[in-house]
Amino acid sequence: MDQMPLGKVTKRAINDAKQLLQKLQELITKLEELRRETVPNMDEIVEVRETIYDISSAYYELIPQNKFAHDAISPINTLNDVNKHMKMLDDLVNIEAAVKILLGSLHRVKEISPLDYIYKCLEVKLDILRPDEDEFIAINDYCSQTLISPNLFSYSNCSNYEVETIYRLQRRGEAGKLTFFVVCH
To answer: How many helices and strands in the chain, by DSSP H and E?
Structure first.
């Protein structure tokens, strides 16, 4: 997974590849179960392995791998391999979104601050807490108690700190989740 195929795959290919990985996950689990049987059915094991090879090949057609440019392609035949490839696909999706947001912020730099553009795209609200607000007081008290405790941190000159600003960050939908959590507990 050293090199990801940036720019070589479409969103549809990524979604199709994820479906193939889910099929591989099911087949690998089935293969492990077949191998654990007291009398393994070798014909069924061979059939599942061949299907794993075929789906692995289809996956590599959708998501080309630079590391196999001069080497033979090895099939995806462990759950660990499936998880690595699934993470790579998730990373590709995240990188694509980040690149689009950053390019959009640069494109509109004369109209809006790039940071404000990014916060709006991510649907994040950022507010400065006033020193008299309960949240500010609670966080400030926590910081002073934590930094003074010799067991938790070993910073030098911690007793001379002063909190200047605390930001409240809210992402879309988080307030409702927190309310649900507080009600349930």
So the answer is: 6, 2
| CB proximity list for 22: less than 8 A, separation 6 or greater | none
| Average pLDDT taken over every residue of the chain | 83
Q: Residue 182 belongs to what H/E stretch?
A: helix 174-184
Give the end-to-end CA distance of the chain in Å, rounded to a whole number: 42
50 contacts 56 by C-beta, under 8 angstroms: no
Which contacts (CB < 8 Å, 24+ apart) does range 31-39 have? 31/77
Q: Is the pLDDT of residue 35 over 70?
A: yes
CA distance 168 to 128: 6
pTM value is 0.66
